[in-house]
Amino acid sequence: MTRKQRRLTLIGSAGVVLAVALGLILFALNDQIVFFQSPTDITQKSIPQGQRIRLGGLVEEDSVVRSDNAQVSFRVTDTANVIDVTYKGILPDLFREGQGVVTEGVIGPDGVFVADSVLAKHDENYMPKEVAEALKDQGHWQGGEEPESQ
Amino acid sequence: MVVEFGHYALVLAFALTLVQSVVPLWGALTKDERLMAVATPVSVVMFLLVLASFGALTIAYLNSDFSVLNVVQNSHSAKPLLYKFTGVWGNHEGSMLLWVLILVFFGALVGVFGGNLPSDLKAATLTVQGWVTAGFVLFLLATSNPFARVAHPPIEGADLNPILQDIGLAIHPPLLYIGYVGFSITFSFAVAALILGRIDAAWARWVRPWTLLAWCFLTLGIAMGSYWAYYELGWGGWWFWDPVENASFMPWLAGTALLHSAIVMEKREALKVWTVLLAIFTFSLSLLGTFLVRSGVLTSVHAFATDPARGVFILTLLCIFIGGSLALYAWRAPMLKQGGIFAPISREGGLVLNNLFLTAATAAVFVGTLYPLVLDAITGEKISVGAPFFNLTFGPLMIPLLIAVPYGPVLSWKRGDLLAATQRLYAAMGLALVMTLFTFWLWGMEKVLAPLGVGLAVWVMAGAISEIVTRVKFFEIGPKRGFARLWGLPGSAWGTAVAHFGVGVTVLGIVTASAFQVEHIVTMRPGDKVEVSGYEVTFDGAAPRRGPNYTEEVGHFTVRRDGAYVTELDPSKRVYTARQMPTTEAGIHTIGFSQLYLSLGEGRGDGAVDVRVYFKPLITLIWIGSVIMSLGALFSMADRRLRIGAPKPAARRKTASLAPAE
Amino acid sequence: MMFWILIALTTGVAALAVLVPLARGAKVQTGAEGSADEAVYREQLEAIDGELKRGLIDEEAAEAARTEVARRLLAAHDKNQAQSGKQLNGRRLKLAQLTGLLLLPAAALGGYLLLGSPGQPDLPLEARLSAPADQQSVDVLIARVERHLSQNPEDGEGWAVIAPVYLSQGQPQASARAYANAIRILGPRPDWLTDFGEALTMANEGLVTADAHRAFEQAVSMDATAVKPRFFLAISLGQEGKKAEAVQAWNNLLEGADENAAWVHAARQQLAALEENGDAPSQLRGPSQEDIAASQEMGADDRQAMIRGMVSGLADRLEKEGGSVEEWNRLMQAYTVLGEKQNAEDAFASAASAFADKPDELSEIKDAARKLGLSGS
Fold first, then answer.
1. What's the rounded Cα separation, in Å, for the pair B103 and B116?
2. Which residue, B588, B600, B596, is CA-closest to B539?
3. Exposed e or buried b per residue across B172-185, where buried means at least 16 C-beta atoms within 10 angstroms of its C-beta
């Protein structure tokens, strides 16, 4: 092989690997990313059944029902709309009623959101940022302090 | 006085970085030995000052000195002593001080042990390190001063975030930081070499031990972080593709590529341009990681700092360092001469392949980590890029790389013979095939990919062993002389084999733990039993318990196998009193390389609890493999030819002439 | 002083780190340093020989590698030859020395004075807690006792010590809890019971609650002559709307009292108010101590206005947000006390509709209304 051929082989193989990597990335970005939706988004847009989404909002007060085999159901609200959620598993440490939560899963045929993972906010001062913004959109979140009442 | 002295020491260190930023490089450019000589003592004194500063903050933590704002915000007098200590870096300010400490530590190491370096390269390297240090000390003093005082000290502090009160966390950030801040020295070497126009095989040889050192710690740090998440977060997962994890993983991938391309540069003086670029990229990724974690732009477990002023500051530093070094690179790199040539099938070719796949994988992780942030910033659309994305992009890129790993060391330089190399690897191939079939036989066809993964892991491990065995011609010359030759092998050969073996071990752990894991989520009442992989787990009941700064509800479980007692496990659910924050403590029992993992959910009030029971086959291999990899790096560093601060040329020649007599 | 000496010393060391090499640098030899890369290549040549000897590479490969490394060695040698010869320059040296001598200490000191708090001592918690008591702030003393009590929760004397401190610090709830502990551990004492009741009353913004009432009564039963518990009991009667009994209680209390005692004035005010308005000024939503102090200086009309203000505040709140049974009862009572029969009836109607679907609460409200003489129509 001449020097030029060697160089071409090198560049060619680099090109192939990078093309494969790029293809994989683009394909995965098309297919494997999950959009964040608030209960209002879900109510208003029509989201195809079976599409994975992230649903975020507040866990509605008094909505958590636990049954055997770690089956849990609760409602997620952005104060305008409410979505029923079911989940099988152990809820994160910081999952509480009235607090922010992000769940990931699919909407079932009956309109109930079947979550396969639940993330709660990680500390006292921290609201998942998607949830905070979704609530802001509904005009019910004022950056951390008290909900408006007076 | 201690606190204020610590503060002064930090400011003085900053003043020294200003001297370091100018004088030695000035000397190097004007060939003035006196100015160059300043670099070494200044680097050492700088390290001592930052160490004193760090020590002062530590003392404030240990004494619960609530006149220091940082202590008030992150400590509590009832916290156990160990966590008062680790709390020093369990917060933004303290961890940035640790960052700077490691930065100057590496500077001092090069100062003290860099005796084999030409004085101009050493001076310029320390100057560049001084620039980085100046930037970060300024960042500390201007936006995150750990020594800010409060006029009216409160009587109690706010406590450390409880999920950070854990021994894993105590060790994890320092290791991680030594790793990814360690790459700063490689960066400094690269920039210094670009400034001085000194990019040759000798440069690669000087940089290699430092890269190895940083890589070794980064490997340990990532492994430790992964194990910490595994047992502290209670989800049983060991890697989440969380942006913060990615932030440390990207420098690791780039650093691994750098290690390999530096070999080519050292041996053949080829890939010079690429290696220098990788050195810049690796530390740039470290800086990017620091930005992601420290600016609070992420939604993640580790993002415990949120302050836009800081984010903007780090972003500015990031732009200056990355932009500046790349501009310098663009200016200097075209002047480099072409190095040695090689055929596509050769040791060099193998290492190029390694670099291609590693950089492609880095790019995939990079896109997956930053894409959601960029999309959010541009369109406001919120997405999450999780494990599926990375499994689909990172996974396929790793497979050809792993297949190629055993080939690398058996191919010869310049022009290799693929067929001959394959013949040398027949044994490894056979073993891999047998293990694949065995796994198929064990598990049937329900999981097709897993046995192939097991085969791949065995192939990498067996390949590493057979490389050593064929190198010493074990079977040709008999075991007795074979063992003798084993000792004679250079450290770098051992390093390669051991590190590659470690890769195989980790892959085996990953494949088995993900494919053959057994998981049960059940609600249990006292007396209930659940069976997992032949182990019978009985819930005996739960009882409250008081810790020093938390209260907990402890579940008691007895594990039996075929009726015989195995162990007892006490997973618990804790509430840390100061912040009223709950955490989960998993109960873990190790059986061979596998683990039984129990974690508790919320109690039901009537004595019933939700319990997550896992059997994770061979999961510890993931971390054992990482430790083996870093052991490989240590072997490589111990190589006589790479030893830092080797004796002077004259003395060296004498020892060298004795060496072949072994 | 020690601090500044230490700082001077440290700065001195840092300056020396710059100055010493500058002074000694002239002696450094460049020859050996310049050939550092040549040393690397020589070493590589030796390594090739070693590998050949061990049979790791064949002669042909070794030869090729040797040629290549030798070429690098020669190039490095030529380069080093061309570049050798050191340049020294006096002005450069002076400038460098100046940075070490002047710039460094000036930058460090200036920066520190800008950012630091020179002279602020360390304050380790242990030292703060164990320092002599007379040098300490109340916060520290409280923390010290709290620390002690968290380790010895059964130390009744400790609780009794800290309880009045809480009260004077404006933490009536903590004070009440501390008194309750002291009483639980060491048994009831009239003064503790009285102070316990007072703390409870303050915690409820001036309203004598049932618990407080019981505490005062128990205190009186142990010491029938004690003034303070009887004072509060009289207030309590007034608040409950038992006018005649309240007047009686105040009169009993004032009988034979020393006119100069501080409480006498307040007691007469209460009595006068009762007699003037036909009823006690009901302590709705609890006036604060400032309110009470103010009300003592106000004329009757002003006082009436203040009470009105509080009542309408309560009414507004209940109307908008709803409230507990107790609050509705207080509102009805307040209107009755003010003689606004119609408003009281309205309040009753609103309360009844608010609790229409909760029979227990509803019957409580109806009971209260019947006592106040409200018809519900």
1. 21
2. B600
3. bbbbbbbbbbbbbb
Nearest to C87 among B32, B67, B116 (CB): B32
Residue C55 CB partners (closer than 8 Å, separation 6+): B473
Closest alpha carbon to B99 in B132, B126, B142? B132
CA–CA gap between residue B491 and residue B636 (Å, rounded): 5
Interchain contact B653–C (C-beta under 8 A): yes
Per-residue pLDDT averaged across A118-142, rounded?
Answer: 55
Sheet with B609-616, strands from edge to edge, namely B518-524, B609-616, B594-603, B587-591
B315 lies within 8 A of chain A by CB: no
Asked if C42 lies within 8 A of B649 by C-beta distance, the reply is yes
pLDDT for B481 equals 76
Out of B268-272, B654-658, C305-309, least confident range? B654-658
Task: Give the model's confidence band at B553: pLDDT under 50 very low, under 70 low, under 90 confident, else very high.
Answer: confident
Question: Which among A21, A36, A128 has the least Cβ separation from residue B364?
Answer: A21
Chain B positions in Cβ-Cβ contact with residue A20 (cut-off 8 Å) = 360, 396-397
DSSP assignment of chain A: --HHHHHHHHHHHHHHHHHHHHHHHHHHHHHSEEEEE-HHHHHHS-PPTT--EEEEEEEPTT--EEETTTEEEEEEE-SS-EEEEEEESPPPTT--TTSEEEEEEEE-TTS-EEEEEEEE-SSTT---HHHHHHHHHTT---TTSPPP--
d(CA B575, CA B553): 9
Contact A131, A56 (CB under 8 A): yes
Chains in touch with A (≥3 Cβ pairs < 8 A):
B
How far is residue B39 CA from its own chain's centroid? 29
Q: Residue C131: its pLDDT value, please?
A: 67
Between C147 and B350, residue with greater pLDDT: B350
Record: contact C43-B656, CB cut-off 8 A: yes
Joined together, the tokens standing for residue C20 give 């010493």
Question: Could you give the dihedral angle defined by the CA atoms of residues A139, A143, A146 and A149, in that order, rounded to the nearest 10 degrees?
Answer: -20
Residue showing tokens 């390290």 = B47
B382 touches A: beta carbon within 8 Å: yes
Least CA distance to A131: which residue of chain B?
A: B382
Q: How far apart are CA C118 and CA B1, in angstroms?
A: 8
Shortest distance between the Cα of A127 and any Cα of chain B, in A, equals 9
Mutate to test the interface with B, among A121, A122, A133 (most CBs of B within 10 A): A122
What is the C-alpha separation between C108 and B10, in angstroms, rounded? 9
